[in-house]
Inverse folding.
């Protein structure tokens, strides 16, 4: 019994303390160093932040190059799938076009009416200049849904800016480096956005699921929500302006509602970065 | 002469093959997630680090593994040092197994690998949840561990073949 315990201790000591051939550091030294880094980054130690910023600049670029082969395989797969779906897509698009043409006249009227009403309540929403960014990396692991964009603090990117794909909200900026930045996508588990569901003006919080959809939390009147209702930003919290389209409701049951995003968050190539400010005159 | 120098350069690249693969995999997060199969994901660096630390520790130096961990943290947005610690603990488990093993057996290694990744993943996410308040999906993590465990068996055959082809006849093997 004592001998087997001795063997265990010797094996552990040899594994962690001994420096093998061609090893510059012992395992225990590097483990302690890692723990030190984690503790210091927990307390936002400035040297660690500088180290992280420098690493970000180098690694994002290198990672973009390393991802090229996998992206090519992924794109080829999508192209093949698109070819197979060509006819059914064409039929669906034709049908949608008819519906949209009939809605267009109504929309023009509503936009004009909205402008008049905003003038009446003296509210103006100022958009900052739109920045167009290229997606360098899209990390769609189940644990993290984020994208790296080739615009950073030198381009006046700020934390909290809205990330749009065409006119649809897809995420917000959570980390800014000198020439790159990271946007947390709406589908990330840690993403929470105040939203409004129309028609009905139901207020809720949109949370990510870690997959390609979202779900609604903290809302009343579940029964008044219907399939295909549209989810917009509510403007609460003052980060985003109200009315940016996000997705539509898919009812799973009476209480649970999934949100299908208008944008395919796994296929983002170019995005728009915008910040909003409200001025009262 | 020129042919000989080209061959030796190629051999050198092959010697660094596992290390190059490790850096590509941490930067690219090679896990076939784009296939969009529900719950399917695996941690390729775990497999690579465990296998090579166990079979030929000098191929992947601890220092390089630690730096690969830092790169992985940057790519996936984890706090600095988290992946480095995880990878080094995997090395620790592999080194322990190497020290206590007299006759290598793939099944034993495979089961020990499962134990190692369960412990290491638990430490990793416990740290992320308690210190950095990160929300995680436990089903996804369990599926990730399961697929990493299953795929170790297949990758170990591939790595074994590579080891025999590239490192055969070396005194340190």
């Amino acid at each position: 019994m004592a001998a087997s315990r001795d063997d265990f201790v010797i094996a552990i000591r040899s594994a962690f303390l001994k420096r093998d051939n061609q090893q510059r550091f012992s395992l225990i030294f590097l483990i302690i160093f890692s723990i030190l880094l984690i503790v210091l980054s927990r307390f936002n130690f400035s040297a660690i932040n500088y180290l992280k910023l420098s690493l970000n600049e180098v690694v994002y670029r290198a990672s973009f190059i390393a991802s090229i082969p996998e992206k090519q395989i992924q794109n080829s797969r999508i192209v093949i799938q698109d070819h197979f779906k060509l006819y059914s897509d064409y039929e669906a698009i034709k049908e949608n076009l008819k519906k949209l043409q009939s809605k267009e006249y109504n929309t023009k009227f509503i936009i004009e009416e909205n402008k008049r009403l905003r003038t009446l309540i003296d509210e103006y929403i100022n958009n900052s200049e739109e920045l167009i960014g290229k997606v360098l990396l899209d990390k769609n692991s189940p644990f993290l849904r984020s994208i790296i964009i080739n615009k950073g603090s030198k381009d006046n990117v700020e934390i909290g800016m809205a990330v749009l794909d065409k006119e649809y909200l897809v995420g917000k900026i959570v980390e800014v480096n000198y020439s790159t930045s990271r946007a947390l996508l709406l589908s990330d588990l840690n993403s929470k956005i105040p939203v409004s569901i129309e028609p009905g003006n139901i207020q809720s919080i949109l949370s990510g699921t870690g997959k390609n959809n979202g779900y609604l939390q903290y809302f009343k009147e579940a029964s008044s929500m219907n399939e295909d209702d549209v989810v917009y930003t509510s403007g609460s919290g003052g980060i985003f302006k109200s009315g940016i389209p996000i997705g539509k409701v898919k009812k799973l049951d009476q209480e649970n509602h999934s949100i299908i995003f208008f944008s395919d968050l796994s296929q983002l190539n170019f995005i728009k970065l915008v910040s909003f400010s409200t001025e009262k005159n | 002469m020129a042919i000989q120098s080209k061959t030796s350069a190629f051999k050198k690249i092959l010697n660094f093959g596992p290390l190059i693969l490790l850096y590509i995999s941490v930067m690219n997060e090679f896990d076939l997630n784009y296939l969009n199969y529900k719950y399917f994901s695996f941690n390729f660096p775990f497999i690579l680090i465990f296998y090579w630390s166990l079979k030929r520790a000098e191929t992947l130096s601890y220092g390089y593994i630690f730096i690969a961990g830092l790169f992985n943290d940057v790519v996936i947005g984890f706090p600095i040092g988290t992946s480095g610690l995880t990878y080094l603990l995997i090395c620790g488990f592999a080194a322990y197994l190497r020290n206590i093993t007299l006759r290598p057996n793939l099944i034993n290694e495979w089961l020990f690998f499962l134990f190692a990744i369960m412990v290491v993943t638990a430490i990793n996410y416990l740290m992320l949840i308690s210190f950095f308040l990160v929300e995680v999906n436990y089903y996804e993590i369990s599926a990730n561990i399961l697929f990493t465990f299953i795929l170790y068996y297949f990758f170990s055959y591939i790595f074994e073949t590579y080891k025999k082809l590239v490192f055969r006849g070396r005194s340190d093997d």
